[in-house]
Amino acid sequence: MASKRLLKKKVRRMVIEILNDCDYIIVNNGSHANKADKLIDEAVDFHDEVIAKISGANSKKEFNSIKESLNKSEVDFVKKLNALN
User: Fold this and answer.
1) What was the pLDDT predicted at 77?
2) Is the dihedral of CA 11, 16, 22, 25 positive or negative?
3) What is the mean pLDDT of residues 57-68?
4) Measured distance CA(83)–CA(13) in Å, rounded
5) Which among 50, 67, 63, 64 has a CA at the least distance from the CA of 15?
6) How far apart are CA 23 and CA 15, in angstroms?
7) What does the alpha-carbon distance between residue 21 and residue 15 come to, in Å, rounded to a whole number?
8) What is the pLDDT of residues 7-49, one digit of tens each?
9) Where are the domains of the chain?
10) Which of 50, 42, 49 is closest to 80 using CA atoms?
11) Which of 38, 42, 40, 51 is nearest to 11 (CA)?
12) What is the pLDDT at residue 4?
């Protein structure tokens, strides 16, 4: 079972990468700035939601479902970022 600390670090790392990529798009590709800004808002909301779930998780089953949704969301965010380029 993964520790809460490691899962929170993974979420933070993922969201920071998304924010950095969105900032790059905003600075260098002004035509997609609004979409990148919306993606930033979505990533921050995702962070808050997942951190709350991790903090409240107590069983292995809950951790596994959080990890599955985290992996799925990571792929979804990458697809959205690729669509902006």
Assistant:
1) 94
2) negative
3) 90
4) 21
5) 50
6) 12
7) 10
8) 999 999 999 999 999 999 999 988 888 999 999 999 999 999 9
9) 4-84
10) 42
11) 51
12) 87
pLDDT, position 73:
94
Q: Which structure tokens are listed for 20?
A: 């950095």
Assess whether pLDDT exceeds 80 at residue 67: yes
What does each C-alpha distance from 75 to 14, 31, 55, 81 come to in angstroms? 11, 24, 23, 10
pLDDT tier for residue 85 given thresholds of 50, 70 and 90? confident
DSSP readout, 30-59? GGGHHHHHHHHHHHHHHHHHHHHHHHH--S
Please give the structure tokens belonging to residue 40: 């930033």
